[in-house]
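Problem statement: downstream parser choked on a complex file, so we are re-checking the raw output for the pyridoxal-5'-phosphate run. The parser issue turned out to be on our end (a line-ending mismatch), but while we're here, posting the original submission so the record is complete.
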Amino acid sequence: MAGAQSGTDRHFMFDGCDTVALAKKYGTPLYVMSETLIRERLREIRDTFLERHPWTFAVFASKAFQTLEMCRMVASEGLGLDVVSGGELYAAARAGFPCDRIFFHGNNKTIEELRLAVEYGVGRVVVDNLYELEALNAIALERGMRAKILFRVTPGVDSHTHRFISTGQLDSKFGIPLDPRVRGRYIGAALAMKGVELTGFHFHVGSQLLENDSHLKAIEVVTRLMRDVKADYGFETKDLNLGGGFGVRYTDADEPKPLAYFTDAMMAEVRRRCGEYGLPMPRAIIEPGRWIVGEAGITLYTIGSIKEIPGVRTYVGVDGGLPDNPRPALYGARYDAIVANRCDGPRSRVVTVAGKCCETGDILIRDIALCEPESGDILAVFTTGAYNHSMASNYNRIPRPAVVMVREGRDRLSVRRETWDDLIAREI
Ligand SMILES: Cc1ncc(COP(=O)(O)O)c(C=O)c1O
């Protein structure tokens, strides 16, 4: 597992920090994020995508893990940010993120959110429907401004991933279908509007993809669209946002590829198609979320109850679960874990790790081999850096965990743990 070494104490070390000591210092459940691993990924994007391919840009899909500190880290490495709600936009602006590097997504942005986007001067609003297009045009005109927009399109490509994280297929709540009658209404309308400036197109085929074929098929479809809109409307595509979706290793069953496996092939395909259709190369943008932060995060839990049902299974209860990581319940996501205080011990006992929520479905990991677990042990679950902290809830009035950032043996609190008073703070 990236960033892991065993310490002298049989304790699992993460970015130079003893995870058992972190659990003791900050309590559990605890999200631990490795700044080293995050920055390595941000720099890999720079080295293998931005510097290798001219006229490109990359944004971090902040829905995967958004904190003020993360926004600042992304800004410091020169990338942009994808936000998907007024809340994410507000937080990014409060973190001092340059708003002209923000792409604002969402399939049903509210009027309030669109006003905020115009007021902050976001780089691109990624328009998903006619309602939003008309509202944005009116808001921008009211302020004497012109909002730059992309259209999110549905390339009609099925990706090989869980259907809840597949987004590029025709039957999707996201994006504009490419049926010429539908797309004509959007493009004709946008080109006639004074409050918006259409600069190009966006697609996102799905998440946790381990092969590049869906991205390549989508590029084939969208470059054809670029050719057709040039022929029909004289519109030249300046921005082509190719989305995110690059997969990571959750368990040994996943074999993630380096970023360049995707991006080199994608760029070659964009170049080839544009050449074939006589189109100028647009600025190509990628939008990874999970790939940047997924493997950079672990979650530490304390093991409490251990319940053996003879001949059936052994449930190992931890002090978190569905509220800090809803992905197993949502998508049947699989995770790997170890007993952090005996990380070199034999993984000889197959158990099921159960969360503490009042839901039968609150199972974090079914049938995992661990080193004989005992009450009081610290369990480290890997690859929880994406869509855990950002998806956390207070179900059963369970306070959300703290986030600790670690870097080469140093740790610092990035987000404090919620208190029980926080849980009732909004109640009148
Ligand atoms: C529009 C858009 N872009 C980027 C992403 C990031 O996906 P991933 O975290 O798989 O890279 C998502 C994920 O839902 C998305 O909807």
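For whoever reads this later: The chain has twelve helices and 21 strands.
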